Fold this sequence. Notes:
The protein contains 1 helix and 15 strands. The chain has one helix at residues 180-200; strands spanning 5-9, 13-18, 21-24, 30-32, 38-40, 44-47, 49-55, 60-66, 74-79, 86-95, 98-107, 110-117, 135-141, 150-152, 177-179.
Amino acid sequence: MFTTEHLVANSNNSLYSTNFIDFENQNENIEKDEYGNYIVREKRIKANSMKYYMTLKDNNLYFVSTPPKNKKEIVAIDSVPKINWNISETESKKINNFTCYKATTVFRGSEIVVYYTPEIPIGFGPFKFKGLPGLILEVYNVDTKGQKYHWKAKKIVYPYQTNIDLLFNPKNHIVPIVSNRSIVENFEKKMTLVSQKVITSSPRGDVTRLGKIERTSIEKKYEWEEE
């Protein structure tokens, strides 16, 4: 499944945006694994349009989720931990005629590989990645479990003149700002309730267990869980 995404950045700020995703899952939406646990999959996935605002001066990231069908948007703040990059001085490749160097890190439980180019001295990338001495043109994870994430720049305009406001402005939004932690915890509570309903509706005598919710996205472990 491919999506169109955009990253606009200068030396201090960036705006990364994604489009709506509407995906039909052809498989059964409820499956039972070998241990007797039920796996619940959504038959249809509708992901919101997202905007991520980052600055280099601090680790606070603001993101705005705009759902389809004119529902209320969600505005949240995430305190992203400082990313410790391991930069390779020997591994490089060309992306869109720019020489890019490899860097790796572990970000919230996922092993991440990126390629950045010092030829564009802007320290940002897609999603929540930043802090390298050049623009990130490719990102992917090397996890054995969960979703495969791969982002690569297809078109690069540099230098780029724009009137787009790259700074988050709370005055542009009428909803309150919530924490990323509250969003994660509320979502997982809902998923737990769904799993409990599946177990309750299972045939009498069928032994089932409520397994721990496994995160399949890049963010598998958060800082507040280590407190």
